[in-house]
Amino acid sequence: MTRFEFHFVCEELNLEQETLQRWIESRLIQPSDPSGPFFDEEDLSRLRLLSDMKQLYGTNDESLEVLLHLIDQIHHLTAEIKKLKS
Amino acid sequence: MAAKDFYKILNLKKSASKEEIKKSYRTLARKFHPDLNPNGKTAEEKFKEVSEAYETLIDDEKRKIYDAGGFDPSQRPSPGGTSYYHQTQSQDDSRYRDIFREAFGGGINFEDLFSQQERGRQSRPLKGEDQLFRLEVPFKDSILGSEQTVVLPTGEKIAVTIPAGVKSGQKLKLTGRGGPGFNKGPNGDLFIEILVKDSTQFKRLGNDIEVEVPVLFSVALLGGSVRVPTPDGQVELTLPAGVSSGTKMRVKGKGVRKSPPGDLYAALKITVPKKIPTDLKKAVEDWHKTYGEKLGEEASK
Prior knowledge:
- The complex is a heterodimer of chains A (86) and B (301).
- By secondary structure, chain A is mainly alpha-helical.
- Chain A has four helices and two strands; from the N terminus they run E-H-H-E-H-H.
- A two-stranded antiparallel ribbon of chain A has the order 1-2.
- Chain A starts with a strand and ends with a helix.
- Chain B has ten helices and eleven strands.
- The chains are: A mainly alpha (86), B alpha+beta (301).
């Protein structure tokens, strides 16, 4: 599995290091390997969404937490429905 | 020449400034973001295209190469981690979904929820739907009460008793006349909302009603009888001599017909004929000179 390093992620997503650090501390992002930290594909996809929300919609950290929580609920429910259908 | 027209993709002129590029990109990216349009394949493609165009045009160097026709973006190596969030979350082993589930005590067990509902639907008797209709009632009926036949949308005719004293907005309940029950459950109820039409003649005041009655000045002066309209025909009312305009005479029991019934009040309105005979005029003038002027002064004090 590909793992991405902290600085690579910041550069790739055009993110300030402080922002990424803050998101990790507030547990908006929970790196797949906290030791590095190293990020996997799933972390990166979540970071890309966070970064887009921040840059495109001007969303602040407090609102990001609420939005991501709602989005996670939708994914959770979608997965449950899928499970039921099968 | 490059394969795609980035200016066209971002709705821009070739001379567009950096600010214009940023603005247009933000507008389009917000519209087509794949995580906000998770089922739209076109949205995702459009978003990628818009992002690609933006990344090239916002970078001075890349833009210069692109404008010179020397840069084919389709040849660009794709960077690491290109999945969108909804894509990683639709996989079975999504970590963030599990984090959410743990945080909320195992999430919701839909299997349980649905099967319970399914079982319920199969065996439990359920009451039918309640239904609501509106019925317009003449003022007279709201005072006297009446029987009306109402035709339901199903074609069924039902007799409805309008109780005396009913008011607009009041609902009559007909138990068991609503939608059919499920699994031998009882029928729903039928509600009829009453709308009382206003009367031009009568005014309702609680259980009493008021009506204006014109009285000829001579009757007001000498006393006599007048005819008073009521919701169920006219009655005769005897007036004493010397009544004034605005006096209200009570006609007992002619208001709302419930127990005990309300009363009807006849508000008297004295009328004077336009043409007054000379002898009458003369008599009134004499009287006015002797008594009227003094009485008029006292009255206006």
